[in-house]
Each structure stands twice: as C-alpha cells, then as structure tokens.
Specification:
Layout (H helix, E strand, L loop, with lengths): L7 E4 H8 L9 H8 L6 H9 L3 H6 L13 E3 H15 L4 H8 L6 H8 L4 H15 L3 E8 L2 E8 L7 H19 L8 E3 L8 H7 L5 E2 L5 E6 L12 H14 L8 H11 L7 H7 L4 H10 L4 H18 L5 H7 L5 H12 L3 H7 L3
Parallel strand pairs: 5-6
Antiparallel strand pairs: 1-2, 3-4, 4-7, 5-7
C-alpha cells in the first residue's frame, strides 16, 4: 500500500483532537487574545466563527461521515486539507496553524502526549513523537538527527500538502516549542526555529509565538535546533510505566494503518541512511524481512527498491536546488554518487533537465 493524497490512512479519532475547535476555546475574548498573542479588529467575530462551526457540517463538507469517536474511520490527506480550508475560511486566519498550535497543551495530544512527556529523556520523548506521527499522521515525517554536536528535530512531508503545508508546520512547531519550554525550559534554550519555506506575510506573528528564540526562513529543513546534549536531559515527568501504559491505551483506542505502508517505511529508513544509502539486503534486514520478501512486497505496491531510492534522491536533490544550493558536486556526494556526472545523468532521467537547466528554470 503506497500513500498519496487519497490514501485513507489518518485515523479520524486523532484528527478530532485537533479539529474539534470548540473544545479548545474558553468563551472569553480576553482569554482568546492573551492565549493567541494576537489582537484582531473584532475578536467577537472570531469567537463566534469558532463556536459556530457545526461538527456535522464541518466533517460532512469534507466527505467524512461524522461520529463522536471515529474509532474505526480513516480519512485521506485530501479530506484533511478540506477541513483546514473550511476552518481558515470561517476564521479568516491564514496563520491558523500558529494559533491552534499555541492553544494546544499536552492534554490536547491525548495519550500520545502523555506517553511522550513521561519518557526518561528528551531524546526518548522526541523519538516517541516521531513514532506516533508515523502511525497517526503518515503524511508528515518527524525525526531526530545530530550533526557536529547540534541536534535537529525535523518535520517534513511525505505527501505534498500545498497550499496548507505551512499550517501543519506552524501547528506542530509551535506546539512542540511550547512543550520543550515546559519540560526543559529555564536555563536551556534552543538555538533557533527554522522553516524550509520563504517568510509568509504574517512572519512577524511567528516571532510572537517563538519568543526569545531566533526564527529563520528559507532553511534546508523545518526544524527545532539546539545542542545535541539536550537529548540526555532527564524529563521531570519521567515515568516508564506510565509511558508504556499510555502508549498501550493510545493504540488500543486508535487503530492505525501506517504499518502497512511499506514504501513509506522504506523512505523513513532511507532518511536515516542519508548520504550512504543501504543495499537492498541491508534495507530488508532493517525492516525485518528478507530481500526477496521486500522486493515482492514492493512489487505488490507497483514499485521497486531502486525506484524508491531514485524517488527519494530526486526529492532531496530538488529540495537542495530549491533552497539555493548550486554545487552539483556537493549534492552528488550527499546522495551517495561516486562522481557528479553519474548524478547529472540520473537527475536528467528523473526531471528531463540537467541540474544547471533545472536551476535556471527554478530560480530561488
């Protein structure tokens, strides 16, 4: 099973924790402005719009059969985008992701939040968040990486969610930034909050939410960036038994389908091997199967190991050029090619353009 805009792989019960907007608001205008850090011309209109979003209509307009628990219902990325579109139109807020992210507390994340914050260390917490994301919201990918004593908690897309990519990044980055400050805070600070896209018209609002932390746009990754040593920070709420129990309850109550998305699991694995990609045998072993089984399962999904590797390399190469990179030699080495001519041939096979022509056609 592969994943695209219409793959129904997102548990409705998980989405409802985010989109039952009325539960997230106190019926008080002053509270709304204080919590969102935004002063608007008429906060009464925002409050009325939020409280006026009828759940049945909200979900029905996205082709989703509304139910209060949604335990056995899965929705697609496209349907999720339709929910966001409705909410933004109702509230007239292009920066809705920032506002929703700031309204969310640990309790809004449900058992996933409890399981994450009761891990022994910050690194364990981020690893659990990555795992929950892969199961509960496969269109997004989250992972922790360390380079030159710098830790990065990166968020990226597995499915192109334009024009609402910003929404997902804003919501999660603000929410995780607040959780970081709650758990680690005090004398421990992040180096920066980075976004992989150009600064939007509401860029000044970002800086209200990420107070006391530099915000950078047009970066290689959307990520929280800080000292790698923070990963060993012992969390104040650490409780292994509670973490295990919360995760058990989470997946008992919200079934997931991500485990069946083999190409998606393979892409996650390739991300971990960035720059020194594994052989088919090694990849299969890491995924807990033989090379023959992996090849067969990928064939059932209409793909091959080489196709998935090429797709992954193509995506990374395009992102490199889109973000202003211009060294063919550098990206060739990053993607595991022995020389730039082999990369250039592969890139032209993928895109129909040479790297130089692609850069001319897609200026930064």
């Amino acid at each position: 099973m592969n994943i695209d805009l219409d793959t129904k792989c997102i548990p409705l019960a998980h989405i409802q924790t985010y989109f039952d907007l009325r539960k997230g608001f106190v019926h008080d205008i002053n509270w709304l402005e204080k919590r969102t850090k935004i002063q608007v011309n008429n906060p009464n209109e925002i409050l009325e719009a939020v409280l006026g979003l009828n759940p049945e209509d909200f979900y029905r307009n996205a082709g989703i059969h509304y139910t209060t628990d949604g335990a056995s219902i899965f929705i697609s990325t496209r349907q999720c985008l339709m929910l966001i579109d409705q909410a933004m139109r109702a509230l007239d807020m292009p920066y809705l992701g920032l506002m929703m992210g700031n309204l969310m507390t640990i309790s809004h994340h449900g058992m996933a939040g409890v399981a994450a914050v009761t891990q022994p260390t910050l690194e364990n917490c981020l690893e659990s968040i990555s795992r929950f994301c892969s199961e509960l919201f496969p269109p997004l990918e989250m992972y922790l990486t360390v380079k030159d004593k710098i830790g990065m908690f990166i968020i990226t897309e597995n499915v192109d969610m334009a024009p609402f990519t910003n929404f997902f990044f804003e919501l999660n980055m603000v929410s995780f930034y607040n959780i970081f400050n709650h758990l680690v805070g005090g004398e421990h600070k992040l180096h920066s909050v980075n976004f992989s896209y150009p600064e939007p018209a509401w860029g000044h609002i970002y800086r209200r939410y990420f107070h006391n932390c530099p915000v950078h746009f047009n970066q290689p990754h959307t990520c929280l960036l800080g000292d790698a040593s923070l990963g060993d920070y012992e969390l104040p709420l650490a409780n292994r038994l509670m973490a295990m129990s919360a995760e058990k309850v989470l997946f008992e109550n919200i079934p997931t389908r991500a485990a069946r998305l083999l190409p998606l699991r393979l892409r996650r694995l390739l991300m971990c091997y960035y720059g020194a990609f594994p052989s088919l045998d090694t990849a299969a072993s890491d995924l807990g199967m033989s090379a023959r089984t992996l090849s067969r399962k990928l064939a059932e999904d209409g793909t091959t190991y080489q196709q998935e590797l090429d797709n992954f390399r193509e995506k990374l190469a395009k992102e490199y050029f889109f973000r202003g990179g211009n060294s063919v030699t550098q990206i060739s080495l990053m993607l595991g090619y022995t020389d730039s001519s082999n990369f250039a041939k592969a890139f032209k096979r993928w895109t129909g353009l040479s790297p130089s022509d692609f850069m001319e056609t897609n200026p930064v």
